[in-house]
């Protein structure tokens, strides 16, 4: 048994169940995740147990969270069995978490969290080993069934589609359109709930992805190549070494007084589905969800002022090796990064991003400098001028 391991979650699968051979008529549940504790080392973790334990454990953390694992069992990899469906790691071992012996908790030590957070931006494969979208299209069906690395930017994000299989299992599907300097639109298909939750935090025309071990296939229905995220795939968001490559065209300036088109929520969904290009409009709706329950590092983010990559609060330099201010003193901005749902009489827009400086104006809140609290946990204090949550909703009622 290992004693205690701390790491940042860089990959995670959905919970799955299988018939228990020892107890006929019952199921065993499992899920896996990948943690990283240094630039060169990351390892897969698997947990087995009953439905209540496994679902509770899975719901307690997400990709991007920092966790501590106590008393996990260290076992050898078995490349012929379950490990061939897990991400490729540099370790010869994997960790096994059990209800009887192990504990997994969110990391409460802020110094450890600050050390781990920048590692979410480090690709798990050689950052020069990737296919451009043009390379994929040029190779065509010769790549059908291949597992490759891709570097591209997010062009648009579709709406999650729910479905039920013939044997009664519920599933979901979401399609992302990617682009780079060689191809204007390329589909990336996501099936896992965990990945779909991650996708909904991305920003079209701004987020860059390094996708390690994506499955490439030929979509016969649309007669085009497509990439799929599977259980082996690790997605690095805004990879520090190559962040600035594909953000062409994302700096469009729009004057607010020029936006006159009014949409219902259903009209916005329809227009986004039909037209992947960015558009602007006004919607009259109310906030049905305001995500303030996430960890502080997700609600409030500190970014390098020059290249916009996320950095820890105590960082002395930018982790992006190609940042234009890499050799200068680090200049940062700290602001809100909130996920909100907007609802009107026609439906709900899920996981909309409300970021600074609009968030401060909308909420009537500002972020004060970080302070050391008596508990020893570093906190970010918000000074709010709105005491009534109803007032917050009123201020946001016309915001998309």
TrEMBL record:
Residues 4-125 form the MEIOB-like N-terminal domain. Keywords: DNA-binding, Meiosis. Belongs to the MEIOB family. It comes from the Eukaryota. One of its GO terms (biological process) is resolution of meiotic recombination intermediates. InterPro entries: MEIOB, NA-bd_OB-fold, OB_MEIOB_N. It comes from Seriola lalandi dorsalis. GO terms for molecular function: single-stranded DNA 3'-5' DNA exonuclease activity; single-stranded DNA binding. This is Meiosis specific with OB-fold.
């Amino acid at each position: 048994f290992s004693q205690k391991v701390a790491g940042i979650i860089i990959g995670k699968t959905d919970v799955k169940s299988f018939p228990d051979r020892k107890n006929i008529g019952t199921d065993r549940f499992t899920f896996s995740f990948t943690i990283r504790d240094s630039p060169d080392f990351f390892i897969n973790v698997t947990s087995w147990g009953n439905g209540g334990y496994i679902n509770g454990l899975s719901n307690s953390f997400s990709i991007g969270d920092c966790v501590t694992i106590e008393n996990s069992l260290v076992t050898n990899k078995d490349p012929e069995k379950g490990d061939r469906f897990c991400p490729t790691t540099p370790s010869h071992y994997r960790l096994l978490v059990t209800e009887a012996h192990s504990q997994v908790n969110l990391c409460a030590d802020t110094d450890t969290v600050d050390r781990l957070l920048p590692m979410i931006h480090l690709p798990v494969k050689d950052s020069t080993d990737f296919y451009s979208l043009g390379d994929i299209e040029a190779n065509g069906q010769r790549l059908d069934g291949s597992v490759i690395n891709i570097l591209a930017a997010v062009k648009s994000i579709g709406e999650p589609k729910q479905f039920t299989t013939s044997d009664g299992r519920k599933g979901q599907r979401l399609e992302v359109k990617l682009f780079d300097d060689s191809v204007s639109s390329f589909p990336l298909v996501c099936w896992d709930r965990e990945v779909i939750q991650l996708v909904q935090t991305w920003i079209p025309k701004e987020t860059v992805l390094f996708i390690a071990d994506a499955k490439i296939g030929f979509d016969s229905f649309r007669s085009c190549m497509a990439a799929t995220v599977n259980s082996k795939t690790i997605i690095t968001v805004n990879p520090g070494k190559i962040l600035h490559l594909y953000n062409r065209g994302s700096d469009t300036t729009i004057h607010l007084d020029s936006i006159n088109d009014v949409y219902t929520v259903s009209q916005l969904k329809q227009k986004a589905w039909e037209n992947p290009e960015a558009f602007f409009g006004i919607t009259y709706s109310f906030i049905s969800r305001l995500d303030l329950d996430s960890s502080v590092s997700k609600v409030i983010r500190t970014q390098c002022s020059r290249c916009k990559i996320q950095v820890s609060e105590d960082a002395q330099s930018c982790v992006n090796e190609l940042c234009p201010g890499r050799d200068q003193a680090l200049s940062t901005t700290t602001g809100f990064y909130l996920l909100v749902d907007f609802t009107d009489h026609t439906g709900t827009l899920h996981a909309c991003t409300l970021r600074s400086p609009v968030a401060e104006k909308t909420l009537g809140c500002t972020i004060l400098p970080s302070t050391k609290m008596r508990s020893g946990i570093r906190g970010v204090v918000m000074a709010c001028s709105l005491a009534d949550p109803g007032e917050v909703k009123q201020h946001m009622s016309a915001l998309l």
